[in-house]
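Sample 3 of the quickstart, ligand magnesium ion:
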Amino acid sequence: ARVLAIESSCDETACAVVDGLRVRSSVVASQIEVHAPFGGVVPELASRHHLDSLAPVIRAAIEQAGLEPTKLGAQLDALAVTDSPGLVGALLVGVQAARGLALATGLPLFGVHHMEGHLFSAFIADDSTASEPEPFAPHLALLVSGGHTELVEVHGLGRYELLGATRDDAAGEAFDKVAKLLGLSYPGGPIIDRLAAEGDPSAVAFPRAMLRSKDFDFSFAGLKTAVAVHLEREGQPRSRAELADLCASFQAAVVDVLVAKTCAARRARGCERVHVVGGVAANAGLRARFDDAAAREGFRLVTAPLRYCGDNAAMIAAAAAAHVAEGRAPRVVVQSSVALDEARATP
Ligand code: ATP
Ligand code: MG
Ligand code: FE
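Result:
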């Protein structure tokens, strides 16, 4: 199905057009500079900036997909919008714009759970890719992003079983908070990732929380505290090399737990296919360690393409396209917080 989707759940304003799993256009306007001075996303500012960015972003996505703004009703099968979870004010801006488009075009509007979108980020392919994208299929997913760290067994479209989740901070949140402690800018994930590549991951022994717990839950708040305590005792790093060592040691602690627990869940569930998706899936250290684990244990690993790890609307459009193809009824319910396995439980 041909779908145009809008994503505005956090600090990225995005619009994309897909045909099934093929991405025809994907435009993302990031608000990083808006929120960086505050060291995190300011909800009120996010809403206001979505309001300003949305129209030009939608126009660009329509144009780049080669569509005619006045003929969308005939050129598309459906519209989609992220309706949960996220900052409620930010979600409402995207949903209201999508409703306007639906009114103008007569197209049905599908609400999509943001994390279901992240699941689809590992299946979509750009127009330039020669091979056909593989259809959505069962797998074990590690959803690892700014607000979530979850292990989900995907049995099929809309059939998501939550195996475990973080009990406190998400992994991306830990990266961002530790970056803040180190005086680095926001978002901290990509910065720590780059510095970690130069450092020694065994320089500082940080805790690996819940590594040996029998469940598939995570906890990262203690690790953040461990970094704070280390800085209180030793002071801020005095050289780039020391900073890199700290980043590498922190990152290794996060990566160790993510990889070990995902592999344990895979063995327990007998999954042959593992997907790593979400903003933190861009992490070079995490990708390398998952590559090693896949080679060692012989499972198939799929990491989302780098440009679709962070928030985008192509993944949202692709999820909606799959629901359209299955003949699901369109439905939009704005919710700031709802679990993936509880969203749209009723048809
Ligand atoms: P959610 O998807 O849970 O609602 P979100 O949409 O805000 O949260 P994403 O945009 O998916 O989150 O991911 C952003 C997060 O990913 C940030 O915490 C950021 O620091 C982190 N991140 C991005 N790149 C990297 C990287 N290379 N290494 C580690 N973390 C990264
Ligand atoms: Mg973001
Ligand atoms: Fe996200």
